[in-house]
Amino acid sequence: MTGLDPLTWAVILLLLGCALVVLEVFIPSGGILGLLSGFAVLASIVFAFRSDTTSGLLFILCALIAVPAMLGLAFKVWPYTPMGRAFLGELPSEEEVKPVDQRKELVGRMGIAKSLMLPSGVVLVDGKRLDAISQGDAIEAGESIVVAEVRGNRVVVRRADPDEASQVPQDQRDVLSRSLDEFGLEEIDDPEH
């Protein structure tokens, strides 16, 4: 009975080492399978050198390429396996992980300029104070504005047309320009008269 030559043993042990690396990813063994994988890969290199030096160097190169490639492939596939899904939970979709800029929803909303805008200033939109930039000319404090666009971290506003200005919610207008009736207050009589 003839035994296997050293090169055949080297191939078998390298394949066994790669398989054990993959199993280490899928089966938590506390590093035991990883250690056995390392021994199998080293033994394959030793057997390859017993065949000849060129084969030994070739197996070192194969081990340096195959083991990380198999490990990377295992980690790429692992989240889609039953154990990976149980451990990690359901993977979020691409739409769920996209950052949401809530300021984009402000486009078209009405508000009031709270400061003189030359071209930047403060506006009040939906009860929130925002730093904004006027789209062109200066806007006086207290004037009605419309959010024209959101560019990066800048909110760009324009002066509201007269018919748009009448649509600005009452709660955003300047407090001092409101009548007492809007606040539900009555005029106070002078007690001396």
Number of strands: 5
Strand neighbour order, sheet with most strands: 1-2-3-5-4
The major beta sheet can be summarized as: 5 strands, mixed, barrel
Q: SSE order in H/E notation?
A: HHHHHEEEEEHH
Task: Give the class from helix and strand content and strand pairing.
Answer: alpha+beta
Low-confidence runs of at least 5 consecutive residues: none
Binned, the helix content reads 40-55%
Determine the strand fraction and express it as a percent band. Answer: 15-25%
Biased composition (Basic and acidic residues): 171-181
Subcellular location: Membrane
Region (Disordered): 161-193
GO cellular component, one term: membrane
What does this structure look like?
InterPro entries: Membrane_assoc_protease, NA-bd_OB-fold, NfeD-like_C, NfeD_membrane. The chain crosses the membrane at residues 6-27, 32-50, 56-75. Residues 104-159 form the NfeD-like C-terminal domain. Residues 161-193 are annotated as: Disordered. The chain has helices at residues 6-26, 32-51, 53-77, 82-88, 94-97, 162-165, 180-183; strands at residues 110-113, 120-125, 128-134, 144-151, 154-159. It has 193 residues and is an alpha+beta fold. It has two domains: 6-88; 102-169, Beta Barrel (OB fold (Dihydrolipoamide Acetyltransferase, E2P)), CATH 2.40.50.140. It is rod-shaped. The mean pLDDT is 82.
